Amino acid sequence: MTESTYRIQGATGDWEVVIGLEVHAQVTSNSKLFSGSATAFGAEPNSQVSLVDAAMPGMLPVPNRECIRQAVRTGLAINAQINKWSRFDRKNYFYADLPQGYQISQLYHPLVGEGSIEIQLDEKDPEGSTKTIGIERIHVEQDAGKLMHDQHPTMSYVDLNRSGVALMEIVSRPDMRSPAEAGAYLSKLRTILRYVGSCDGNMDQGSMRADVNVSVRRPGEPFGTRTETKNVNSVRFVMQTIEHEANRQVDLIESGGKVVQETRLFDPNTGSTRSMRSKEDAHDYRYFPDPDLLPLELDDAFLEECRNSLPELPDAKRHRYEHDLGLSPYNAGVLTADVDTARWFELLLGECAKAQGKQPAEVARQAANWLISELFGALNKLGKSLEESPVTPEKAAELLALIGIGTISGSIAKQVLEIMLETGNGAAVIVEREGLKQESDSGAIEAAVDQVLAGNADKVEQYRGGKVALFGFFVGQTMKAMQGKANPQVVNEILKSKLG
Ligand code: ADP
Ligand code: MG
Questions:
Q1: Which domains does the chain show, CATH number per domain?
Q2: Is 395 in the pocket of ligand 1 (CB under 6 A)?
Q3: Where are the beta strands (DSSP E) in 108-189?
Q4: pTM for the predicted model, two decimal places
Q5: Closest ligand 1 atom to 174 CA
Q6: pLDDT digits (tens, 9 = 90+) for 363-403
């Protein structure tokens, strides 16, 4: 574990930043936490509202097993303690988008207890230094509806589609010490949720949002008073919030003021935060056990099913890519950061092994390097994601096999990939049609080498006199003479023997 040394330089000395995140993650499920209404994003306002969600008198909530299951699976994925006995509480407050007048949540006995998430501090660091961020709890609760202020000149509208949708609130310990650590934590959490399939992680659609708790202190001193900035909806905004809020607190303290515990709002247009209301305490909400709901009791069979349903998780996958497939920590990190990328890579690996008659571990480095440095780049230029790639894993494997057996060189493969992306044709067909086959015939290459050496007698002399860096020049000239199609290995061998 490496301690971050991120500091804010104040007028009176250095300050350390302390950060804890409360992340609201919308549970992936077909229906809401306590009703059968649909949860799809983007539906007509108020088209997914049952009598329970609208809080009609006498309606009774019924817990949705799938939502509980998803929260338990998430807890297991962050090595957390699962509480076999938990209970729902009412959190009482009045707001126009909350028809019940209370939110059903869990304060005293949450479903998931302590866990942890490991973050990578520097993706490029070959040592791969990591830090463990503690998780305090995950509780399950209902979302509220949404007020729409821009639909009518003098009135606000209420959309209750989101009312009653299940959320997991994932509360971290105040273990982060820099904007970068908080960014890495949020990204890692999103990666895990997507692997587990318990939240789609789409922050721009509001399925994941963070309350950002920030305080500052002199290094080594006790924690300072924190502020909480609500509902920040991107990794970048979370980092900006921390940066801005920490600097504001330092300025405030250094000019003789005091940080007050309050709730703040982030304004993406200015990158700054402003006060929303003074912070309420738990007792302000008059929490009490919801009398309409029995405590949740989980049995071993249920927990076992949750555990067995988990896929290989990002840390395990990353470790396997490094140790069993021989990938660099950086490549392993890139390929496992997103579950869809990892899936695509593994399909590619299977196809490559099949096409080249080798073990996956023998083709893994070639496949990983090509995917990261060639296909990602090419798709990026086209503005396409991996899922939209016209080149499938199977077609990519055909191209890689041609490189593997020496039919084409890496640089010709770039051209072939471009044509594949344009036309959708297979690699072998393109190589044949465009005459891109690599020349491995030593006779033809030897002739080209002789020509190059004869035409550059002065450089040959310099090379033999000790200027060995000229070797690359001869390779380049020979390649040029052969229109890029000479087998580089053969070129090297022939040049070496001729130059002596
Ligand atoms: P509440 O629910 O009232 O906001 P919690 O005790 O659940 O209060 O804490 C909320 C979050 O605040 C947690 O993520 C925790 O890590 C973080 N936190 C607590 N103390 C501090 C502090 N001094 N500085 C920064 N974050 C803090
Ligand atoms: Mg809070």
A1: 3-306 (no CATH), 312-434 (no CATH), 442-499 (1.10.10.410)
A2: no
A3: 115-120, 130-142, 146-148, 157-159, 166-172
A4: 0.89
A5: 16
A6: 999 999 999 999 999 999 999 999 999 999 999 999 999 99
